[in-house]
Amino acid sequence: MSTPPSRFPHLRQDFAASLVVFLVALPLCVGVAVASGVPAELGLVTGIVGGLVTGMLPGSSLQVSGPAAGLTVLVFEAVDTYGLPALGVIVLATGVLQLVMGALRLGRWFRAMSLSVIEGMLAGIGLVLIAGQLYAAAGLEAPDSGLGKVVGLPGAAVDALGSTEALASAGVAAGTVAVMVLWRRMPRPAGAVPGALTAVLLATAVTLAFGMPVATVEVRGLFDSVQPPGADAFGALAGIGFLGTILAFALISSAESLFSAAAVDRLHTGPPTRYNRELMAQGAGNTVCGLLGALPMTAVIVRSSANVRAGARTKASRVLHGVWLLLFAALLPSALALIPLPALAGILIHAGWKLIPFRGLGALWRAHRGEALVLVVTAVSIVTVNMFEGVLIGLALSVAKTAWEASHSRVEVRDEGAGPVRVYLSGNATFLRLPRILDVLESLPRDRPVELDLTGLHHLDHACRTALGHWAERHGATGTPPVKLTDGTPDEGSTAVTVP
């Protein structure tokens, strides 16, 4: 007699993976909340919603959602500008907008966003995050603007060197970073424990054992921290700046989530992401987070990759990780009060460093300098201006670069004095280059046959195709043989006329 199939055939693998993801997510949820200027418990709330709500919805089966370091800078600016009560409205509106975009099947369009702009965005976030957390590491107050944070670092270093408490705090942060970097080299079974959790536990133990004068997480309680937005908070929706902030949240969180989904799909052989449904799942999660006044959520590549590597097979692993976060928040909230703030700063400094593609930038510069320039300009713009405008600058530069490359063409003319004049057109022939292309063609001798080779073209738009046809008709109307298309290749000795 055969055994009936189990309803949860992969429960053991998913259960083990959920514990790993929980241990990875716990310190990050708390750290992102503290760095965003909101109560630590709100980070846990977003992680819980990411597991229990978004985790149960279709889209990407193994991707894990929660508060992300990539939105820390944007959240901090929003809370600083509009206040904590308005955060719920922003996140709620972000979720609704994502639901609408998913229903309109716009999910796949986010994959068309320039990779250089996305990496530049993450690099800019990483730079601002690192700069801001260096102040937190020493227990100092950071300037408000990203540029102010960077410019003020030398003065902050001088202040820290003159304070015993600041040096002790910075030492805890530096030790946290060192543990996270070195822990990856640890053999199993110790190496199986997430480095961030290990670093926080060690930092907590050291500060307690030696009575170090460092600040710890302020605990308000889960229910006291959850504050649904009141009716007054919705009045801010009348402001243009407020609406721009919502748009920034929606676009950046959606792009980061779907970019993460594409990366996670490359890590496993299971069902691929359904992007429109994943966008709606993120929207549903952010809608719930907004109603609870919590942080916005995105899919997080660190947690998602940990989920895959831990052997997760179905979405049960990410749902269970939300259960563990809920149990921790409900049963052990006082444990948060023992965590040193400089340890969380160290975790976010490490996270910010990983957002900057140092190795990839060098390779990109050697292969595609234009894309590298877009990446750098986007990152610098985010640091010097702000997140939303920095991304817009990067997108504008990317579009301009694409338009330039799409219209770059070259005309080579070879005239040996006898026989036909051979013309070789290569690159991308668009209406932007049409005037100069026609200038070259119309300067050819009218009493000589012409062979026109278009095989080197990557693109020929309608305007150019029509204009070339009209030119060929006019050239042949004088009694010379019709213009012929050839497959010839220019040989040595040809003279080149470049169409700028």
From TrEMBL:
Coiled-coil regions, chain positions: none
GO BP annotations, alphabetical order: transmembrane transport
Membrane topology designation: Multi-pass membrane protein
UniProt keyword list: Membrane, Transmembrane, Transmembrane helix
Transmembrane segments: 15-35, 42-62, 82-104, 116-140, 160-183, 195-213, 233-252, 323-353, 373-400
Any single GO CC term annotated in Swiss-Prot or TrEMBL for this entry: membrane
Domain SLC26A/SulP transporter, chain residue ranges per copy: 11-378
Entries under InterPro entries matching the protein: SLC26A/SulP_dom, SLC26A/SulP_fam
Region (Disordered): 475-500
Pfam families according to UniProt: Sulfate_transp
Annotated compartments: Membrane
Location (main, coarse): membrane
PANTHER family: SULFATE TRANSPORTER (PTHR11814)
Name of the molecule in the record: Sulfate transporter
Organism: Streptomyces pilosus
Lineage of producing organism: Bacteria, Bacillati, Actinomycetota, Actinomycetes, Kitasatosporales
